[in-house]
Design brief:
mainly alpha; ABC transporter involved in vitamin B12 uptake, BtuC; 15 helices
């Protein structure tokens, strides 16, 4: 039974992706374009050059962090929709600490900024986690509301306190070079991979890989991870077994928020080198889609983030070289998630019926 469940967990997302491309093809045909031509342009835009692949990876990195945040909370039976607010707080804290401790050398400042980014997101997720554990307040409502507070709060401090001198744009000054993560073009060129210097792919991808491993390690190789999964599977049984439900709930949200806060390693430390007000284009909410498609598995989140990174990168080529708007990619993404959710429900019912038999 476990083997069939594992196989189904792999096949179901693949079928959903293929079906969503089919639906997208029908939309393209209705517009009057050739689906084969449009998809050829899409894949060429995503994989046609080393530069394009670099952009795919760059676009995937923040989605990995956001997806891990949602997936980790799901494992504990929680629905964290606050990734957007948590990544804003994590990014602002990262920039603020970098500008405050600008005299530190890179070997000290970079690890500190990574930790502070995670701490900012963790702190912002701790309150809804506590409210859930202590009063039973639903985390969906609390995390949604805290998204608005985070965006407004960081916007205020950027404009009124840390705004770069002489700039109209609501952004902080550039963080010191000692706190910046290097772009990977130079390192890859040295081993024969011709990634252009202008490509934004940076060392935050290494942090993302480490985060994937850390999420897996916590969930499947620690006592805390066992308790989180037990509470997510059956809270009453977990409590009967002696697991502290309140503590586990808070810890789940704290770790989830920490993953969301790590978006700062890409956006602040690796790309913009400053905090920019309203910089996120819904990264936290896209994390929900990434987690669902990745079946709430750390490795699945990686592949789902790469898929969305590919779609986002190739969408520009579609917009430029065809009459199909780049919003087609949103259609593909939305249909994918709908099919994944429906497929998951069907799968659970089938497996439940087989167990009963």
């Amino acid at each position: 039974m476990k083997r069939w469940t594992a196989i189904a967990n792999v096949i179901a997302p693949v079928v959903a992706v293929l079906a969503s491309f089919l639906v997208g093809g029908l939309v393209v045909a209705a517009i009057g374009e050739s689906p084969l031509r449009v998809y050829a342009i899409l894949f060429r835009g995503a994989f046609g050059s080393v530069d394009a692949i670099g952009y795919v990876l760059f676009n995937a990195v923040p989605l990995i962090f956001a997806g891990l945040a949602v997936a980790f909370a799901f494992r504990g039976g929680l629905f964290n929709i606050g990734g957007e607010g948590q990544l804003y707080i994590g990014s602002f804290v990262c920039a603020w600490v970098a500008l405050t401790l600008h005299g530190l050398p890179a070997p000290l400042l970079i690890p500190l900024l990574v930790l502070m980014s995670a701490a900012g997101g963790a702190l912002w997720a701790a309150l809804p986690g506590y409210l859930k554990a202590r009063f039973g307040a639903h985390e969906v409502i609390n995390t949604i509301m805290m998204n608005f507070i985070a965006v407004g709060l960081t916007g205020y401090f950027v404009i009124e306190v840390l705004k770069e001198t002489g700039q109209m744009t609501p952004q902080t000054a550039e963080i010191p070079a000692a706190g910046q993560l290097p772009r990977l073009a130079g390192a890859l060129q040295s081993i024969g991979i011709p990634l252009p210097d202008a490509n934004p792919l940076n060392a935050s991808i290494l942090v993302a890989i480490a985060a994937i491993w850390l999420a897996w390690f916590i969930l499947y190789r620690t006592t805390l991870g066992y308790e989180i999964r037990a509470v997510g599977f059956n809270p009453k049984a977990a409590e009967y077994a002696g697991i502290n439900i309140r503590k586990t709930t808070v810890m789940t949200m704290v770790i989830s928020g920490a993953f969301a806060g790590l978006v700062a390693t890409n956006e602040v430390m690796g790309f913009r080198h400053r905090f920019l007000d309203n910089f996120s284009s819904g990264i936290g909410f896209m994390g929900i889609a990434v987690a669902l498609l990745g079946r709430n598995s750390p490795l699945g989140v990686l592949f789902a983030a790469l898929l969305f990174g590919m779609l986002n990168t190739g969408a520009l080529e579609i917009d430029v070289f065809t009459d199909v708007p780049r919003e087609l990619i949103l259609v593909v993404q939305a249909v994918t998630i709908i099919l994944v959710v429906v497929g998951n429900e069907v799968l659970q019912r089938k497996l439940g019926a087989r167990r009963s038999a």
